[in-house]
Input
Amino acid sequence: MSVIDWLLDSDPSIRWQVMRDLTDARPDEVAAERAKVAVEGWGARLLSLQAPDGRWGGGAALPGWTSTNHTLWLLRMMGIDPTDAAVRRAIALVRDRVRWEYDENMRFFDGEVEPCINGTAVTIGSYFGEDVGGIVERLLGEQMADGGWNCEQERGSTRGSFDTTIRVLEGLLEHERVIGGSKAVRTARERGEQYLLERRMLRRLSTGEVIDQRYTQFSFPPGWHYDVLRGLDYLRAAGAKPDDRVTEAIAIVEEKRDASGRWPLEKPHEGEDHFAMDEGVGKPSRWNTLNALRVLRWAGRS
Output
């Protein structure tokens, strides 16, 4: 079985993205497959796990990988149709009933206080058509001098963090895609991209050493963690033009491909997931393979 056939022999959430990004299927065929995400497979299963109080996992940001924030990020990653009736009902419950652990008076789509959490809230709020303008304005004011963002800023940090910055960048990009953005949002996002690129997607600006070896280990779902595959896939989605500052990161992606042309699940993060969407650590991962193949295609290395 070819790699593409293996990817297509999967969940609708993967199939429609393979069709759009790797096989150049007709738009009507892609749309028909995408429509299945809300009614079949993983997307429908995640929708069914929402509690009557609007939450997943019993919380807004906690517990980690089963929380409302993370579950909605997953549904957005799967490309679930935000206009589907069942999806609209689910989002209405979140809007009306879910409050943040930080302060029970803070409504979900008004955001929290940490930029890492708020970056994801902007991503999902924008995708599902909710007003997250207040969170966006807060994030613009929290961008650091080096162009990044850091959840530890309120505790004295003066430097950006890859883990926080990627989540904010994903949020600002989604906001621009849906709302049209503004000069201020675009400028902040481009500064954030330069933060990653100036550091070659994984290295310290001061010493040139790799910041964290886990940045070279690919996981899915990534949660709040950064890795170079996630960073490159963001640049691809943003329409950035690859240059020599991504050369090393792209080489890392290429080196991870196994003899069958697939990419493994390397580093699942600690904590409970709703359910497995890959076959296990060290085994080929459809999500990692999809992301890697479209990154290489973007880089002209397919």
Summary: The longest helix spans residues 162-179. DSSP finds 13 helices and no strands in the chain. The mean pLDDT is 96.
